[in-house]
Amino acid sequence: MFQLFKKKSNNFFSESEREIIASAIKAAERSTSGEVRVFVERKCRFMNALDRAAEVFGDLNMHQTMQRNGVLVYIALKDRQLAVYGDEGIHQKVGVEFWNTAVKDMLQYFNKENYAQGIAEVVIKIGNALKQHFPYDEKSDTNELSDEVVFGR
What we know:
Elements: H1 9-12, H2 15-29, E1 35-41, H3 49-59, E2 70-76, E3 81-86, H4 88-110, H5 115-133, E4 150-151
Parallel strand pairs: 1-2, 1-4
Antiparallel strand pairs: 2-3
C-alpha cells in the first residue's frame, strides 16, 4: 500500500521529522485543554488497529485527563494499520466519522510518502476539534501528557 511500512519504527522518523510531529502536537494543544499523542510500533498485536489503539491509550494513561479529552494517533508500520482513538469526552463531541476522516486524511499524505507531514496535519486537525469543544483555560490547564512521539516494539 505504501512504502512507510518497510522501515523499522525506531528508525523511521528522522530527528527533524520527529520535531515536525512534536511541534504539531504542541501547536494543537496550545489553545485547548485536550491532549494528543502519537504512538508508532512495528506490528499491531490485534486484527483491528482500533482495538490496539484503545489498549495503548490505556497503557499510556491517556484516560486520566481531567476532561477525558485525550486523543491517540496510532500507527503500526509493518502491519500497515492506522487508527485515531479519542477518549469519551471528545468522542461524544465529534463522533466516529471525525476519526474515520482523520485516518483517510493521513493516508492521503502517506500515499505520497509524506508521513511526518501527514501525521502533523492530522494532529493539527484534531487540535482544532479539541479547541472548539475544550478551549484552553489559562487558570487550570496544564500539559498532562508528553508531546513526544512514542515508539513501541
